[in-house]
Amino acid sequence: MEAVKKEEMKKGPWKAEEDEVLINHVNRYGPRDWSSIRSKGLLQRTGKSCRLRWVNKLRPNLKSGCKFSAEEERTVIELQAEFGNKWARIATYLPGRTDNDVKNFWSSRVKRLARILHNSSDASTSPKPPSRRNKGKNVKPIQCFYPPQFQSFGLVEEEVTTASSSSSKILPYSSSDQVDEALRLSESGIKLEHQPFSFGTDPLMSEPHIANQQATIPFYPESRELLARLDNPYYYDILGPAGCSEPLFALPQPFFELPPAERRCRHVSKDDEEEEEADVFLDDFPADMFD
DNA sequence: AAGATTAGCAACCGCAAGTAC
DNA sequence: AGTACTTGCGGTTGCTAATCT
């Protein structure tokens, strides 16, 4: 009997007809009573599945298929530092974004960082080509795509500008790139919050863990040595427990509390110097970053 | 052209809190 | 007060498209 019930329960991708049924139900009864959709025989989906589909895909005003803007990225980074992995809460600050969107965005960046750090450890012993995905790829060069706090999460491609030439080329994301990033990070005067690394002694357990985060970032001893060569006083502030500096940016308010015009990131600077830094930071975003 | 790799996304699962009875 | 059910959240998994060798 139970087995029959499970067989009847549909899983997997939603069809347009199912979406239509779900939308009709919501239009009629509102976004609630999800379980009744099945009990009425409208859909062979669980209430949870129906709710998820509505929240993540069918709800009006969703920015589906639209990449995170620079401002959205910055908001996520700032809020993650403040709230931790409270994706639903973070999503309330991002109109049109769901907790799933934010979660996916964050995890993809974490994965990228993990790969970069892993590659850097390999590169410290023997040079390794960049990821296949990016090697030789004709990627539009960008500079400081991510806010300083997030730069450790990794530009895979970076514009290389010399004094004599402004031409750019794509380089593999080498260990020296990370050193540059770490330097930029420290030069910006911004320290990462709530993301201390710790190092185990067991080689198999040598991956440190980012506090307050489920994801495990492989950070090999070689990588640490590499960065230690920076001889930079901020190095351990970047990767270790931060002194929790004042944030350069005030967080936007939850979008349901403020009209759109007021939902901008505002600089909260303790003094002119910090404000200037913040402006410089904003200038790092290329104009065409924003759709 | 085929296979391998990666990132992004959609959906599922387990758990916890809230609610109704 | 206890139980069952519903809802919401966060973590995880699996699929697909894009890209590279």
List the topology elements.
Elements: H1 2-8, H2 16-29, H3 34-39, H4 47-58, H5 70-83, H6 87-91, H7 99-125, H8 175-187, H9 221-228, H10 235-239, H11 272-283
Helix pairs in contact: 7-9
The structure holds a DNA duplex (21 and 21 nucleotides).
Largest sheet: none
Helix amount, in percent?
Answer: 40-55%
Average of per-residue pLDDT values: 56
Note the run of SSEs as H and E.
Answer: HHHHHHHHHHH
How many beta-strand elements? 0
Stretches where pLDDT is under 50 for at least 5 consecutive residues are: 1-7, 125-249, 256-291
Distance between the termini: 53 Å
Number of helices: 11
For the record, the count of structural domains works out to: 2
Bulk shape: elongated
What's the alpha carbon Rg, rounded to whole Å?
23 Å
Helical/strand content category? mainly alpha
Percent range for β-strand residues: under 5%
Concise description?
The chain is mainly α and 291 residues long. 42% of the residues lie in helices and 0% in strands. The N and C termini lie far apart (53 Å).
What does this structure look like?
This protein has 291 residues and is mostly helical. The protein has 2 domains: 44 residues, Homeodomain-like (Arc Repressor Mutant, subunit A), CATH 1.10.10.60; 216 residues, no CATH class. Helix content is 42%, strand content 0%. It binds a DNA duplex (21 and 21 nucleotides) through α4 and α7. Keywords: DNA-binding, Nucleus, Repeat, Transcription, Transcription regulation. InterPro entries: Homeodomain-like_sf, Myb_dom, Plant_Male-Germline_Reg_TFs, SANT/Myb.
